[in-house]
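Appendix B, record 7
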Amino acid sequence: MEEGWVLPNMEHCQNPFGPVKSAVARDWSYIPEGLKGSEGRVIDRLMAYQGLEGVKNGFVRLRYKVRVAKLQGKDPAQDNYNAFFQGNPGTGKTSVARLYGELLAALHIIPSSDFVETSGVKLAANGPSNLGYDVEGLLTGKDDSGVLFVDESYQLLADHSGKQVLDLILKAMSDKIGKLVVIFAGYKEQMEPFLQHNPGLESRIPYTFHFENLTAAELWELFHKTLRDNYANMQFERKNGGRELQIAVNRLMRRSSERSFGNAREVQNCIASMHNRQLERLWNERYMGDHLSDERIKQYFILTRDDMLGPPPNAAFRSKAWDKLQNLVGLEDVKESVESLMKSLQHNYERELQLKPMVQVPLNRVLVGQPGTGKTTVAKLYGQILSDLGLLSRSDVVFKSPADFIGSHVGESEQKTMAILDATVGKVLVIDEAYMLDDGGDNPGSFKASVLDTIVANVQGDSNEDRCILLLGYEENMANLMRNMNPGLSRRFQAARPWRFSNFSPSEMNRILDRKLQLEQLGTTDRALEVAREMLVRASTRPDFANASEVDQCLGVAKNNYIHRLSKLSSEERLSNPLLIPEDFDPDLKRRDENCDQYFRGKLGDDIIQRLTKYELVGREAAGQTNPSVLLPNRLTFKGPSGTGKTTAAEALGRIYYNLGLLSSSEVVQSTPMDFIAQYVGQTAPKTRKQLEKALGKVLVIDGASGLSRGQYGGEALEAILQFISSLSYPKIMVIILSDSSKELDVLFKEYPLLQVQFEEEIVFSDLLPDDCIGMLRHELETLSFQIQDESPLIGPAKLRDAILRLQQATGFQNAKDVKALAKKVAAKAFELKHKTGLEVPPRTTLRESKEEALVATYPLITKCVHEMTEQRRALFLRNLQTSTKAQKTSSLLSSLTHSASQFLKQKPGEKDANQAREDQSDQQTRVKTKATQDKDISTSRDTSRTREGSHDAAQKEESRQRSNKRSANGDPDDIPSAKVAKSENHQREKEVCDDNSKAKDSKSKVKRSVKEMEQLREKEEEAMKRKCHQLKLCPEGWAWRKEGTGFRCEGGSHYISEDELNKR
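Structure tokens (predicted):
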């Protein structure tokens, strides 16, 4: 056997940390054995303990106090000897408590040294009615005596039942002096609130023993004694093996400041780890066969450096966990970060062997990234690597969420957090979605803040801690957490250098898919694999893209469809179809052959369809050679009036891009400027980003886009949109469409030139032509199961075309919207005629494409409905014109009366009549002229309309004349002779003049009353307009409305509408 350092001969080796000296033990050794008495043997046993200088001194002083009391003739048994034992675990509190009971019994303070051990948790859980035989007998038994040891006694304050037990113990301490001694044990900082529970508690407990942590020299001596007692024939691999033992003690000392440091227990655990590593080495180096050679036997009595200290950090590069980490797809940045950490630990290890101070290398980390990027997998492998290196005593990975830490009342959050920290010593603690602990930093006393404060107070963040905590979450949210909460959190978790888990690229997703297929032994056709990859690329455009989890979802769908497909086949057919086919991955695969021209024919104009078809052709041709998203526009402007098909074109574009695999959905997200603009400073940009993110992978239409430049925060919204657009890159794409009239968009681009650069692609939508309207009408009727048919196909379409032309010339024509309304009107009219006549709606036919039976709508019926819509529009226009004229007259009259009243109240009595007569005469002449001019304009408008209507062929003129004669016979106001109209209007003007003369002669009180009535009328009209604004929900936030200029504005300030526009609604 080679020369080594045999442990039983360590007496000749000096303690590298210096000799362990105990002044109390030295002084005690001077006392002759004959004078120590029976209690001396108890104190001798205490003196053999490492450390505990203060406890030893307390025992000696207690013995001296009792002996002096007896000499003075006093009975010492009548005093209290209850005690507090304060210290960390492993400092010997329980062992010393037994000696304390034996000492008191030897000094005849208590009749018996019976020792009953329990805990605060157990007593609190059982309550005062179920204390147990031993505890209850000791507290309430008349003749029972001994020592009650309550470990972790602060737990008695956790709930009401625990406090009841504590009160019961306090009562027994007073009633059974001389028979019962109670020892409360726990951590020093947790015993302080325990003392504050009852003012009389401290007076009943006169003794406090502090159990200090062992010093480095004491730990070394304890190491030496334990190795000598348990491994007598063990030796180190090298003569300087004492250095490894010194390093092991240094590692323990670096952790001695922790509340959970176990002192003697830590030494025992460390020696057990050494022995386990030795067994692992012997197992891996075992020889074949049962023969044990001398060399083989020699290895059983040698402790190598790796046995004592664990393998060097660079050994991690040979571990299975490291290999698994390297085999993960992607994550290059994370792998590099872990490798850098291992190299830093190796540098520290080399410094440690030279007994140099170590460079702090924290193990706690922040892991940021989207779901499915591998954070959980890496956390498990990271914990295993640390365990393999001996940096953690266990390899367990414990996952917790913020809800596991947060309590429901004051103090509970701290308790739950400490319980989790204590339970995860030696393990990797992963807190997923840790940003949920962020309360914004505005409430330092919140439960969330208490959790983080407790973590900061008990976690140091260096490599000497036997723990590792990983915080997981989204990068932006985690940055807010570090900025808002406890400043120490960032330092303990290296928040400035997080491990970033980037989204997987398409090629990495393909590699993951291939590995999953290989692992599950699933075969696919070449086309099926291609479709699966396209599905993954499409999924990557969604805002909730789950990275690697998308592969599991994709395969899940394919396997379900595969099983369903095979269930319909016979056994022989199932055996011949072992592969996944394209339809298994994408059941709606046939949509890719869909033709935009066929699908939207009749819904859009030919020029628009031709433009969209060009996009479709370019995308299909480029799909096999390059990425189509580079060639196709994804930011467009749709210019045109309402109802010209902009929304339908957006739907068509979304369907084309979806079929090409560029978007994850064909959905069109409709929005208005108010969906982007907020009410307060700093809220618009986040609101805009949220709205844009919601439409990722889809088509976003901003209707009335010119409104983005209005309001106080419109510019902020536009800047946020431009910033978001610049951050988009494949495969995270979306289609954004600005929709408005040409004039409004031109103004917007003039104000924001950068916006026009981003939205260069332009599609102009013109008003529909009559033929376009008829084609769209035909399509809408077919959807309602109607077919257009006429006995005279040459005359019917021509009349319908002319009727539609007149409808378009009417005020308020809305293109496609009116065509859809006309289709519904025609269908309703057909069924109405059926009900009145009792006859079947004209003969049924079949639809041209579907061959289904359909009802017939004739051209005369449709033409009649068009005429009705035209007349309704004209009547509405005249009513609005009259309403506007009346409003102007009311406003003018109110202003005139207010001025007259003011002058009336100011002038002298003698001047009143003459001035009033002149003003009345002037006002009467002005009103007559104004009325005549307005009547002439209305008459001219009507004549112009009739002239335009009469410019068609002779047959139409005759039909129009007959229809006019018929309406005249029925009293239609449009065909009343102009003489009668003039006579009626002259009569009306004469009546108004008389009324004005009578009003001018009224008294002062009547003028005041008139002014008041007009004010009330104006207020009523204003309130009615405000109610209308509220009913139309013009302000989505529900603000009240106020009068402003010639319109109304909401109290929030972001919405305004003029009176003219409001009257049209």
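Remarks on this record: Residues 859-906 form the longest helix (48 residues). The radius of gyration is 47 Å.
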